[in-house]
Design brief:
The chain is about 35% helix and about 20% strand. The protein is α+β, with helices and mostly antiparallel strands. Strands 1-2-3-5-4 form a 5-stranded mixed sheet. A hairpin with a 3-residue loop joins strand 2 and strand 3. Helix 2 runs antiparallel to helix 3. The longest helix has 18 residues. The two termini are about 30 Å apart. Bound molecules: adenosine-5'-triphosphate and magnesium ion (MG). Magnesium ion binds next to helix 2.
Length: about 160
């Protein structure tokens, strides 16, 4: 359950968000999404992305973790931080690479781990500017799974009866 993985990570990291007065929210939990894979690795993937979002977003900002179904399960982590310059968005997946002047300690290993775990699950990872304004939008698109029936929404149910 992608939702269960997100809930576990969010609960774990909630105190860190709270300490920075960051509003950590989750969206999409009402739709149950199944992903095929290793729950320990998937937790590690989500943890690294949410960790980055909290770490690089200044005091009082927002972090939103969203799950949704768009032909296959999608996970998005959106933050109101400084964003990642476009010229660095591929380089940050290299081991030890860190954006100059980010002002926070780190090893530059989180995103390479994220990419490796995504590849093991045949999922894609992209980093973009947050369309909601300032910040980063990290998106993981999982492959279609035979476990996953497209979730029913009320409109579909109405059409069936
Ligand atoms: P760690 O190994 O502890 O995760 P890290 O956070 O520096 O260290 P990565 O997670 O690989 O390493 O991130 C690489 C770099 O990408 C970071 O140093 C930071 O400059 C930039 N970055 C990653 N996520 C964000 C984000 N949400 N907002 C702004 N910059 C980010
Ligand atoms: Mg990191």
């Amino acid at each position: 359950s992608l939702g269960a993985v997100v809930r576990e990570v969010a609960l774990d990291l909630f105190p860190r968000a709270q300490a920075k007065n960051i509003d950590l929210g989750a969206e999409g939990g009402e739709v149950e999404l199944q992903v095929e894979g290793n729950p320990v690795l998937l937790r590690e993937l989500v943890r690294n992305l949410v960790d980055n979002a909290i770490k690089y977003t200044p005091q009082g900002g927002h972090v939103t973790v969203r799950t949704r179904f768009a032909g296959s399960p999608v996970l998005e982590i959106e933050d109101s931080g400084p964003g990642i310059p476009e010229s660095d968005r591929e380089l940050v997946f290299e081991r030890f690479y860190r954006v100059l002047g980010s002002g926070v300690d780190g090893s530059g290993l989180g995103l390479p781990i994220v990419r490796e775990i995504a590849e093991l699950h045949r999922a894609s990872v992209t980093l973009d500017a947050n369309p909601a304004g300032q910040g980063t939008l990290a998106r993981i698109v999982f492959p279609r799974s035979h476990l996953q029936a497209p979730p029913l929404v009320q409109g579909d149910v109405d059409a069936l009866v």
